[in-house]
Write a structure and sequence with these properties.
There is one protein chain. The longest helix is centred in the middle third of the chain and has 32 residues. The strands form five sheets. This protein has a five-stranded mixed beta sheet. It has a three-stranded antiparallel beta sheet with strand order 5-7-8. The protein is of the alpha+beta class and about 650 residues long. It folds into two domains: about 220 residues, no CATH class; about 250 residues, no CATH class. The protein has 14 helices and 14 strands.
């Protein structure tokens, strides 16, 4: 450590270092060589303020006068979610954590502003009064955050989105650009989810807190790259004062020097052995951990991390926990049967890893030889169109060897179910959700059959916490895209097609997403891979996994014009190239370039190879035909 003459006080340094017990009992030992000089500018080596960590084995200093002192946690006992959606003093949004190069931007998290601020919404906590319940339908407990909050949120996100896109265009560090793109994708995904879907109060409040976290992390990344990093590297003039951000703990003088040049608040952790060499000017108390929210989350507070302080591990644990609020429950993994009276399960809706487990969502059923052949698409005027290549590819699937365990369940109701029945009246009955057994059945039997029918049709759609279902007195009328559908009145053809089309896309998305989860090794789950997958799911626009776009019903894999399917097919090819077994399965499509596809004939030849590869992958994993994405033709007045 460099020695500064003005650090030396008239008193002599103690010849021996005090013990931890002595320092713990007498904190004033930090002032053994107290400096009286305030005339010169401070440096990163100064100790304007200091405090002893309980136990006396370490002490903390900062060169910034007037900056509060924070105590580090060397061991984390229970890292749990709090009522504000954060994790108390173990959360980098609430409390300084140890500096790590891999997550250096987290040192630039904004400090909570005092009074009104353009970004005050990012520290807002949701209460019951902020939740607007959806009272239509058979379910109770779903809703959205109130519109005024969403409007304020949208304004902040819009500004940050524009800034991020400009940053990604101009910035030259590809690693930082990719991280910014990942944050922006998550942010927009989560905003769309909150605006589009009704969810339980616990999921809505947890999802809102997760969105705030994504926003603050992205904001910190941009500030780090554009403001602080140039100062740390000496490319621009150093900061004259510390910035209004949370800062970090450090124990390395070279890191401290860089942080000081940028004005990033830091607290230096010293071992007691360094005491004779450090000149602390003034003692100050530590900030109490009680100043951050300590109330546990009312829906359950699981411990997500315990152990030594490790920002990388803490960051990963928080990411896994918050991601669960937006994760669609996989229909291709074992699960418990849901309760129709709702669930009191604590914590967010979670989907545990199924990377190597053979998926078995429902008990294995006997084959129904008299049922529909799902490897042949329906020819029904109510069944929307698809690309003809999919129909031919279904027939080409090698069904000679079923997987060891398989199922015939769907994430959502099978879209063919509604138009493969014998009468139009039955189609209307199914679409209206009339699951009731005949009235002559005994009451207890009718109730059991009702629940069984709902489970059979909706499957994992009922796996929610804090939600109840009213099956004894369902609403007589059903709302669909601004129209009211009444029992006894034949449902228009256009509505039937819309429902079938929507279910086809929701099922296709779930199936592709969970097949990708199953087959993509962790090391290949890059941001670029996610972008290819998103193109398969949503096309060129940002989309919500569980919300379809009725403004563009004739695009995607089922587009009428073959060349309009080109980008989706190449994206699916890129997704599959990351899957296990792609070396042998993707030989015919691996080296095909976009430039070689110049007309409909070459496109359809490539399409056939891509789709057959996907369908075979799906069958070999799940033992059934995949759901085919359909289209609604605008000319049919279906939308």
């Amino acid at each position: 450590m460099p020695k500064h003459a003005d650090h030396i006080h008239s008193k002599q340094m103690p010849s021996t270092c005090p013990t931890a017990e002595e320092l713990d009992k007498n904190n004033k030992l930090l002032l053994h060589r107290q400096s009286n000089s305030t005339a010169r500018p401070s440096t990163s080596y100064d100790a304007a303020l200091g405090a002893v960590v309980p136990g006396g084995r370490n002490f903390v200093t900062t060169p910034y006068r007037g900056l509060e002192l924070y105590s580090p946690s060397f061991v984390i006992q229970d890292m749990k979610p709090r009522s504000n959606g954060r994790f108390g003093e173990h959360d980098y949004l609430e409390w300084p954590q140890m500096f790590t190069a891999a997550l250096c931007h987290l040192s630039c998290i904004l400090r909570r502003p005092v009074g009104w601020h353009p970004l005050s919404i990012m520290w807002w906590s949701m209460k019951e009064d902020d939740f607007v319940p959806e009272r239509r339908g058979i379910s109770m407990g779903f809703g959205r955050v109130k519109s005024s909050v969403l409007q304020e949120l949208r304004r902040a996100i819009s500004t940050l989105t524009e800034r991020t896109r400009t940053f990604c265009t101009r910035h030259t560090n590809s690693t930082e650009v990719e991280l910014a793109q990942k944050y922006l994708r998550l942010l927009l995904d989560r905003e769309t989810r909150l605006q589009s879907l009704i969810t339980s109060f616990s999921q809505t409040s947890g999802g809102f807190a997760a969105l705030q976290r994504t926003f603050l992390e992205l904001h910190a990344l941009l500030d780090y790259c554009e403001v602080f990093k140039p100062q740390m590297e000496g490319r621009v003039a150093p900061a004259s004062q510390h910035a209004p951000i949370l800062g970090v703990f450090v124990s390395d003088y070279s890191q401290a020097s860089q942080l000081f040049r940028a004005g990033i608040p830091f607290w230096f952790i010293h071992p007691i052995q360094s005491l004779p060499q450090v000149s602390v000017a003034e003692l100050a108390p530590f900030v109490s951990a009680e100043t951050v929210c300590q109330d546990e989350w009312e829906f359950g507070a699981p411990t997500i991390y315990s152990g030594v302080q490790d920002l990388d591990a803490q960051y990963s644990a928080i990411a896994e926990y918050t991601d669960a609020f937006f994760r669609t429950y996989t229909p291709f993994a074992p699960h418990r049967q849901p309760s129709l009276q709702g669930s009191s399960t604590a914590g967010p809706l979670r989907s545990r890893g199924t990377e190597r487990a053979r998926p078995t969502p429902y008990p294995k059923r006997q084959s129904n030889s008299g049922g529909r052949d799902k490897f042949v698409l329906l020819t029904n005027s109510l069944y929307p169109s698809s690309s003809p290549i999919w129909s031919r590819a279904l027939a080409d699937i090698d069904r000679g060897a079923l997987p060891a365990e398989f199922h015939r369940g769907y994430a959502f109701p099978d879209p063919q179910l509604f138009v493969s029945v014998q009468t139009r009246q039955r189609t209307s009955t199914l679409l209206l959700g009339d699951f009731q057994p005949p009235p002559e059945a005994k009451s207890s039997t009718r109730s059991a059959k009702t629940k069984a029918n709902v489970r059979e049709l909706l499957g994992n759609c009922l796996l929610q916490s804090g939600v109840q279902f009213n099956l004894t007195d369902p609403p007589e009328e059903v709302a669909w895209r601004g129209s009211i559908i009444t029992p006894g009145v034949e449902i228009p053809d256009a509505v039937v097609k819309e429902v079938v089309w929507e279910l086809s896309h929701l099922n296709f998305r779930c199936e592709l997403k969970f097949l990708d989860d199953l087959l993509t090794p962790r090391q290949r789950r890059t941001e670029q891979h996610q972008r290819y997958l998103n193109w398969c799911l949503f096309g060129s626009e940002m989309g919500e996994f569980l919300s379809v776009n009725f403004d563009r019903p004739d695009e995607g894999f089922a587009a009428r014009v073959p060349m309009l399917r080109k980008d989706h097919l190449f994206s699916l090819r890129e997704v599959m190239l990351a899957w296990e077994g792609s070396g042998s399965r993707c030989q015919l499509i691996r080296n095909v370039s976009k430039d070689s596809i110049y007309n409909d004939l070459t496109l359809e030849a490539f399409e056939g190879s891509v789709i057959r590869t996907y369908l075979q992958y799906f069958f070999d994993s799940f033992g059934r035909a995949t759901t085919i994405p359909l289209r609604l033709d605008i000319s049919d007045n279906s939308v």
